[in-house]
Amino acid sequence: MKNPLLLLVAALTLSGCGLIYTNIHMANSYRSATPSDVKSSGADKTVTGSACVKSTLFLFAWGDAGYAAAVRDALKGEPPNAMLYDVKTDRTGQAYILGLYAKTCIQVTGRVALQ
After folding, report:
1. Is 111 helix (H, G, I), strand (E, B) or coil?
2. Torsions phi, psi of 29, nearest 5?
3. pLDDT tens column, 3-29
């Protein structure tokens, strides 16, 4: 073959070992405060935040789909001493055309309390 680099990339891609670069964060658990742990009230508002990881061709991935990033997104615009409690999480993922583009997201929903 005239181009050995092309052969190597094709072999890695087709063998399932095609993850050449990755930079993702994905936690698997999250401990949340409960209403009895914070100064909660019935007037506390509910907020939602999300964080995503994206990839192309299952070769290159980037993003931060961790709980910390989703909580930061949910608390965006809140006072610095705000915290989430009674948190619920959901993870979603989509892949299109055999991995041409893929996206995995974590979404957190919780109530905001001031410390």
Report:
1. strand
2. -150, 160
3. 777 666 665 555 554 445 555 566 566
